[in-house]
């Protein structure tokens, strides 16, 4: 009875985490990361000079000349933390990085889904490694385990443990970035750009508010595939 109940519980936990991972993974693919609005204040050609001066006083990130950053491909002025992705051929709001695994950029609108997909993927792989270890141990103790079965168990446990280690390390890295209110691009640039380090300090609102910026206002909805509402 105990083994049956344990198996049912493990199966339920595994499928819940797997479904949550797949939902968030799909959402991170299909949800647009966010682009510069097609409004007059961001248009490089139609923007009026007096409004341009006002925006320069608001924006943190500027060119070395002090002028507003603009994209020569999109012909638009760039908001802070916006970068042009040559793969997506668009300027991405709060661009973190272009992820080949989702063939999409991670940006303002889909950052939560990307983080949740990492969280649930890490939980799923670690859970499989832990629960599968019992079968591997029993197979080793049992000297009559067929070679094919032993090989598949050891191969599956080794492969899954390796994947869980990689995904978990990647998750911890992005959690660290989130805690420090940094994007991957800003992390890569901070060693060579002192000005970029000062920007990161400005964006850092503290542990709790940094999490709210990505996962939303309500902590009860943080780990559900529901869009961020700020």
TrEMBL record:
Record membrane topology: Multi-pass membrane protein
**Subcellular locations according to the entry:** Membrane
Instruction: Identify the EC number(s).
Output: 2.3.1.225
Keywords for the protein's UniProt record, in alphabetical order: Acyltransferase, Membrane, Transferase, Transmembrane, Transmembrane helix
Q: One MF term from GO for this chain? A: protein-cysteine S-palmitoyltransferase activity
Query: Where mainly located?
Result: membrane
InterPro entries on file:
Palmitoyltrfase_DHHC, PFA4/ZDH16/20/ERF2-like
* Catalysis: reaction(s): L-cysteinyl-[protein] + hexadecanoyl-CoA = S-hexadecanoyl-L-cysteinyl-[protein] + CoA
Which is one Gene Ontology cellular component term of this protein?
membrane
Enzyme class, UniProt record, top EC level:
transferase
**Transmembrane helix among the record's keywords?**
yes
Q: The organism sits in which domain of life?
A: Eukaryota
Which residue windows are transmembrane per the record?
Answer: 12-36, 113-140, 152-179
Palmitoyltransferase DHHC domain residues? 65-191
Spell out the Pfam families in the cross-references: DHHC
Instruction: Give the similarity note.
Output: Belongs to the DHHC palmitoyltransferase family.
Quote the record's domain comment: The DHHC domain is required for palmitoyltransferase activity.
In Swiss-Prot or TrEMBL terms, this protein is called Palmitoyltransferase
The organism of origin for this protein? Plasmodium falciparum (isolate NF54)
């Amino acid at each position: 009875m105990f083994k049956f109940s344990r198996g049912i519980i493990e199966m339920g936990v595994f499928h819940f985490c797997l479904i949550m991972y797949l939902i968030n993974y799909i959402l991170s693919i299909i949800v647009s990361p966010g682009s510069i609005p097609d409004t007059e204040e961001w248009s490089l050609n139609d923007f009026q000079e007096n409004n341009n001066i006002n925006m320069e006083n608001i924006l943190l990130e500027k060119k070395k000349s002090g002028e507003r950053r603009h994209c020569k491909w999109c012909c638009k002025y760039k908001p802070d933390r916006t970068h042009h992705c040559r793969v997506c051929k668009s300027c991405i709001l709060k661009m973190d990085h272009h992820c080949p695994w989702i063939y999409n950029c991670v940006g303002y609108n889909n950052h939560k889904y990307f983080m949740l997909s990492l969280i649930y993927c890490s939980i799923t792989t670690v859970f499989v490694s832990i629960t599968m270890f019992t079968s591997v141990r029993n197979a080793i103790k049992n000297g009559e385990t067929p070679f094919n079965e032993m090989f598949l168990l050891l191969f599956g446990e080794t492969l899954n443990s390796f994947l869980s280690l990689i995904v978990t390390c990647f998750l911890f890295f992005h959690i660290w970035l989130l805690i420090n209110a940094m994007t991957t691009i800003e992390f890569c640039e901070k060693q060579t750009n002192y000005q970029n380090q000062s920007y990161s300090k400005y964006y850092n609102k503290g542990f709790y508010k940094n999490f709210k910026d990505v996962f939303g206002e309500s902590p009860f909805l943080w780990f559900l595939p529901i869009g961020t509402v700020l």
